[in-house]
Amino acid sequence: MNDLIERALDAADRLGAGYADVRVVERSNEQLTVKNGQLEAATSNQSAGFGIRVLVDGAWGFSASALLEPAEADRIAREAIDIARASALAQQGPVELDDTPPVTDSYRTAYREDPFAVSLDEKLRLLMDADAAMARVPGVAIREGSVTAGREIKTFASTTGARIDQEIVESGGGIEATAVNDSEMQQRSYPSSFGGQVVTGGFEAVRALDLAEHAQETAELAVALLDAPQCPPGEMDLILDSTQVALQIHESCGHPTELDRVFGTEASFAGTSFLTTDKLGSLRYGSEQVSIDADATAPGGLGTFGYDDEGVPAQNVPLVENGLLVGYLTSRETAPQIGRRSMGSARAWTWSHIPLIRMTNINLRPGDAGSLEDLIADTREGIFMSVNKSWSIDDRRLNFQFGDQAGWLIRNGKRTQLVKNPTYTGITPKFWGSCDAICGPDAWTLWGLPNCGKGEPMQVGHVGHGAAPARFRGVKVGVGRW
Ligand SMILES: [Zn+2]
After folding, report:
1. Rounded to two decimals, what is the model's pTM?
2. Rounded to the nearest whole angstrom, what is the distance from the C-alpha of residue 439 to the centroid of ligand 1?
């Protein structure tokens, strides 16, 4: 592999690249799914290859190959150079990279139990136990559970002398119950509806979910939702659980702070942004309570790594500080345009893709409102919503509507009536501006979101969101049917 890396960088240099980097990536994924007491799917796949990115006359070129041979490095380097020369013809201004110093280092996800070393039998037993517990609840039509494992081994090297080896290990799992009657279907997922919980770490994280322990209540809630009344429409105080806060952060803060979207250079998947750079340091994004960080160093986060795919070290930087917009997710190309150095959020899904600005772990800092129970007790009249079911947000990430799996009305500080199909709607800065309480560190969870899509061709992004239950005053709820 060293040969291939050297050949790639030498060739790019010789052919006229002002800058070049090469990534050699090997990715393995495994997923096990159980449905209604049967093994539904057991998939395992590997992919390996390398990508070369070059800058020629201030224009990018990229090419990639699955043939890991030194001679192929020459061919791919030439192809990348040709593409860069062609891109230069349509380029508006030359790309200029920031002054991030090149680094030689290595990084490994910390884990106790290698998720690939745990036997299929054991994983299957864990899912079957949860399935059996759900099956004991009458009225559940579909029971599902899955566990996942991922490993990425990659090397990054550049013509400026960077050389970084990384091994990222991921583990995840979750369950879902579906109840059906003549007229509708209701679902409950544990612990979230985005693939359960996925972390960078070992299988110990899956064991800690105690899927079987939570299976019965998950199934019972799906059944109970069938007979629950609809969420009433109105304007009321809204408490979101931490999984829904996580998705709210993802859609209304994570995506609009991606600086490539802000500049309009990456507009696929409904993506520009209302957070234009003239608002940096002046826009009131939320209330005083709201501080949001991009933290690629958070232990266990699905957006945690040592270095991004441009060789920039993982960092923890504020995006929103006490309600004020103070930062963006940047790359080496975009950061200088706002007078900064990259904060390290350029990542590629795999060897065959060019890095784009992707969220790291976009975390809402915990507040001082104690536990969820404390926050409900502090709320006279309102609604608590839990686990995302649907979402919709406009191109600029301003107007949104979310639906959740379950809601509970709050009366005089008590969680009362269960309601189904709860929804809420808002406008991003007004909504975050109405946030007056966030639960404390003990109620804060760093959720993994394994299915963020961006770019063309589409790239999957593994990102994280730390969140605690939070309260928003005077929110429009119960609008529309989902
Ligand atoms: Zn996304």
Report:
1. 0.97
2. 25
The backbone torsions φ and ψ at residue 86, rounded to the nearest 5 degrees and listed phi first, read -70, -40
pLDDT at position 479: 84
Mean pLDDT of 151-164: 98
pLDDT tens digits, residue range 209-266?
Answer: 999 999 999 999 999 999 999 999 999 999 999 999 999 999 999 999 999 999 988 6
Q: Domains in the chain, start-ordered, CATH in brackets?
A: 2-227 (3.30.2290.10), 234-477 (no CATH)
The amino acid at residue 78 is R
Cα-to-centroid distance, 231 and ligand 1 (Å): 27
Ligand 1: centre distance to CA 453 (Å): 5
Q: Distance, CA 454 to ligand 1 centroid (Å)?
A: 7
Dihedral over alpha carbons 61, 62, 67, 73 (to 10 degrees): 40
CA of 336 to the centre of ligand 1 (A): 24
- 272 Cα to the center of ligand 1, angstroms: 13
**302-331 burial: b if 16+ Cβ within 10 Å, else e:** bbbbbbbbbbbbbbebbbbbebbbbbbbbb
